[in-house]
Design brief:
mainly beta; seven-stranded mixed beta sheet; 0% helix
Length: 116
C-alpha cells in the first residue's frame, strides 16, 4: 500500500530549527516529485518547497527562501525539510506530497509550533 509518513514536527522556540522527514513506501519513490505543504486552520494549504525526482532541482516559497532546505535520499525512500530561523508565522501542519502526472500521495501531516 502506498504511504507517506511525516515525522520531526513539534514545538520550537523562535529562531530555532527542525528537520522534518517523510518516509515513503509502496511505490517507486524515485520517480515522483516531492513537495512540502503547510496549512493553518482557516487557510488554504500552502506550497512550501518542491524537489524533482532526481533531486537536482528545487524551488521554494518566497516566505521560506534562505531558511528552509528540501532534500531527498532516493536510496532510502526519504525526503526532508530542514527548517532554520523559524518564526511564529511558520506554525502550521506540514504535509509531504509525492506526485507523478495525476497520481498524488499525501502524508498525514506533522504539527510545527514556533513559540514567539
Amino acid at each position: 500500500q502506498e504511504q507517506l509518513v511525516e515525522s520531526g514536527g513539534g514545538p520550537v522556540q523562535f529562531g530555532g530549527s527542525l528537520r522534518l522527514s517523510c518516509a515513503a513506501s509502496g511505490f517507486t519513490f524515485s520517480s515522483f516529485i516531492v513537495r512540502w505543504f503547510r496549512q493553518v486552520p482557516g487557510k488554504e494549504r500552502e506550497l512550501v518547497a518542491g524537489i524533482s525526482a532526481g533531486g537536482t532541482n528545487t524551488n521554494y516559497a518566497d516566505s521560506v527562501k534562505g531558511r528552509f532546505t528540501i532534500s531527498r535520499d532516493n536510496a532510502k525512500n526519504m525526503a526532508y525539510l530542514q527548517m532554520n530561523s523559524l518564526e511564529p508565522e511558520d506554525t502550521a501542519v506540514y504535509y509531504c506530497n509525492a506526485y507523478l502526472y495525476t497520481t498524488h500521495y499525501w502524508g498525514q501531516g506533522t504539527q510545527v509550533t514556533v513559540a514567539p
